[in-house]
């Protein structure tokens, strides 16, 4: 199963920053067992949401030629929980990188202005066409950005 953890992209600047939201819905199957009768979005899913948002930044910044695949987490801190009904504001910023084909990012997830996750991670830039159909994903990006010309 594939989890799509970015519900809306609210802002982006090519090669620099991207912002979006993840709405935590009670119907998400990962909440059934995390934890029974006390549903909490797993922290690793917050990390995955930030990673997916980074992929969208790479895709949009490269005219849908590239995608980001995480390879390591340099540091990560969690500051609380995301519950059903919460809207997690996500933000990713590019950091300077010296390695060819690798990029470094820092991410932040907040709920109502309160930090829930901070992370610094790195990964590989790969051809998007090897993973997905770039034209289909371009249309999906338009949906995520509400085709507002961001």
Note the main attributes of this structure.
150 residues, alpha+beta, Thiol Ester Dehydrase, Chain A, 6-stranded antiparallel beta sheet, globular
How would you describe the overall organization of this protein?
The longest helix is centred in the middle third of the chain and has 19 residues, at 43-61. The chain is 20% helix and 39% strand. It is built from two helices and six strands. It has one domain: Hotdog Thioesterase (Thiol Ester Dehydrase, Chain A, Roll), CATH 3.10.129. The model has no long low-confidence stretch (mean pLDDT 94). Strand 5 and strand 6 (114-127) form a beta hairpin. The protein is an alpha+beta fold. The protein has a six-stranded antiparallel sheet with strand order 1-2-4-5-6-3.
Task: Quote the beta fraction.
Answer: 35-45%
Q: Strand-and-helix sequence, N→C?
A: EEHEEEEH
Number of domains: 1
Structural class by secondary-structure content: alpha+beta
Concise account of the structure shown:
The chain is an alpha+beta fold and 150 residues long.
Strand-helix topology:
Blueprint: E1 8-13, E2 17-23, H1 43-61, E3 66-78, E4 87-95, E5 102-111, E6 114-127, H2 134-144
Antiparallel strand pairs: 1-2, 2-4, 3-6, 4-5, 5-6
């Amino acid at each position: 199963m594939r989890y799509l953890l970015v519900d809306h992209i609210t802002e982006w600047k090519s090669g620099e920053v991207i912002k979006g939201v993840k709405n935590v819905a009670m119907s998400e199957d990962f909440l059934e067992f995390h934890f029974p009768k006390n549903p909490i979005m797993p922290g690793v899913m917050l990390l995955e949401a930030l990673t997916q948002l980074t992929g969208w930044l790479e895709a949009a910044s490269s005219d849908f030629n590239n995608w980001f695949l995480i390879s390591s987490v340099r540091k990560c801190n969690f500051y609380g929980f995301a519950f059903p009904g919460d809207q997690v504001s996500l933000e990713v910023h590019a950091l300077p990188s010296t390695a060819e084909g690798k990029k470094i990012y820092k991410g932040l997830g907040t709920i109502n202005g309160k930090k829930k996750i901070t992370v610094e991670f790195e990964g590989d830039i790969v051809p998007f066409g090897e993973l997905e159909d770039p034209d289909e994903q371009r249309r999906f990006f338009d949906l995520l950005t509400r085709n507002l010309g961001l």
